[in-house]
Specification:
174 residues, NADH Oxidase, two-stranded antiparallel sheet, six-stranded antiparallel sheet, globular, 8 strands, 29% helix
Length: 174
Amino acid sequence: MQVLSDRKTSRDFSVSALPDQVLSNLLWAAFGINREESGKRTAPSAVNWQEIDIYAATADGVYLYNAGDHSLEPYMEKDIREHTGTQGFTSVAPLNLVYVADQSRMKGTNQEQKIFYSAADTGFISQNVYLYCASEGLATVVIGMVKKEALGEIMNLKRHQKVILTQTVGYPAE
């Protein structure tokens, strides 16, 4: 009940980096594997497609979260944080999560349903991030004001990969 009470949106971030363990816990809470025997995750996924990939954009570059071995894989050695939203805080906050739907995993459905389900699944994941942030005293905000196609080009995403939302995370500004 306390975490739900503390859950909030913030747009004021410190530039202080997140410790590795905090980032690790955050990503596991977001969409990590919590049932090893089935590979199922901390957030629901329509038809168990698990189509959402989480990219972590930091000052050091972009990393892809691999839930299977709970690791961050280097993806791009470029600071793209300024492109993860139209608000200025995205370029100074230590972490911007980029939620990308890999629509090639969404078999047996049409484009309208792919958009709907990937948006819903991203909502579940981003809420897990909100709850984790509340539990750890972190600030966060989901950002819909993103030039998604431009960000996809900057990230060299494939045609079947679509940016859904981004989410900024960091310590609250002092």
